[in-house]
Amino acid sequence: MNSIYTAEQVRAFEKNSFIKKGDDLLAMMEAAKQSVEILNKDFSTSEFLVLCGPGNNGGDGYFIGIGLSESKKCVKFIDVLDHVKKSPLCEHAFKMAQDSDFINAKTLKDISSKTVIVDAIFGIGGRIDLGSELEEILSDCNRFESKIAIDVPTGLDSNTGEISQACFNADTTITFIGYKLGQRINEGKNYCGKLILKDLGFSMDKNVSPTVKELSFEDIKSNIPKRKENSHKGDHGKLLIIAGDEGYGGAGTLVSETAIKTGAGLVKLLTRECYVASALARNPEIMVLGGDNAQDLESHFSWAEVFVCGPGMFHNYWSEQMLYKLIEYAQQNAVPTLLDAGALRLLEIEAFAQLTLPENLIMTPHPGEAAGLLNISVKEVQADRLKAAKDLHLKFGGTIVLKGHGTIIYDGNTPYLCSVGGPELGIAGSGDVLSGLIGSLVSQGLEPMDAAIAGVALHSGAGNQFTKNTGVIGLAASELIPLIRDLLN
Known about the structure:
Elements: E1 2-5, H1 7-17, H2 23-42, E2 48-52, H3 56-70, E3 75-79, H4 88-96, E4 101-102, E5 116-120, H5 132-141, E6 146-150, E7 172-176, E8 179-180, H6 188-192, E9 194-198, E10 212-214, H7 217-220, E11 238-242, H8 249-261, E12 266-271, H9 276-282, E13 287-290, E14 306-309, H10 317-333, E15 337-339, H11 342-346, E16 361-363, H12 367-374, H13 378-383, H14 385-396, E17 399-402, E18 407-410, E19 416-418, H15 430-443, H16 448-469, H17 480-488
Parallel strand pairs: 1-8, 2-3, 2-5, 3-4, 5-6, 6-7, 7-9, 10-19, 11-12, 11-14, 12-13, 14-15, 15-16, 16-17
Antiparallel strand pairs: 1-10, 17-18, 18-19
């Protein structure tokens, strides 16, 4: 499980680690040495062009270029923003490289695209308000076939993962000390390419608590519920699902099928009367009851040990009635409850404002739902997904699963990030499957946060498996269910 840090954390740790004068120069030289080793291994016969900025990242670049030259490589430099005063370390490295071959940025278009281009302009100090001069340079850089970023690609915000109008689109990023949050969320993962960490012997992960822990399926294998030889259905929970208002009957079917096929002991679906037959035809193992008002169905609440509510629900009398009565019951009886999709949209309306939500709550919003709950724009949510997840927890409590590329899971303690999975999961019904999976794991005995972490990892792992087997196009949400079941087993 990777530890992820903010740029400020890395800077502070690095500064505090320099005990005596000159340690920072030695660290820079070691970073350059290890970078040269990687570049020599991957590009044994190539020519290199190193773009160096005026800060310490530029110093890294000069030392990297010097090291490549000593390895008998053909190296050219561009002194980007040469009118800006250089940092002391960059100035020192620049003087050591002065006898090298420097070219003007305007000649970038004349350099062969086969040349390996190395971005050492800003690094961790990168920003997204670059200006037209730098954006033009970066656009020219992105035509090269092999693009290496040093620490953080220029144009990428190392905290938020936002990018400038133009951003260095690296194939590989060699990063130092610790992973930066912006490398793993929003556009960061796309623009960093393959990420190689060199901690330079600082062991930051042993000394500093991370801003985020990055998880994958491998990290949660030990949390998958185990079964005794003599266990039976009653040992694995009673999960009650409310889903599928008019026109959205498939949502209830997806959630309940996921739950029964990922290990929930007993699953009961409360839906509209017209969807009972189709739900039973698809999954006869599930108890399905239909009704057109809450009074017909609320007597089943007392059966449940865990609730999932919201898929296929919307601003409609049936949905509002069912959710209101469910929240009241779950809060009074301390029933763990997952709210998703339409239930989250309904929380925005005034009728629900005075309700106290259950303590063992899980909310699984996508960015649009999160924006509605926080009364901000989707753009604001995406600009700082970690803050959005924390704000949701502050407002509603419980465990927050902010879905999307780089899912954030937060319950008031250290947040978790899942950056596995891609466009294959951005499909209709994918969130319904995730809701059923997390609800199933809670019913099998996992605490809400553990169930959310395991559910997200299994869900993304299934998407990743589909991508390996088939590609990213054409996944139907129901096809995730057998893939998840295979991972569980």
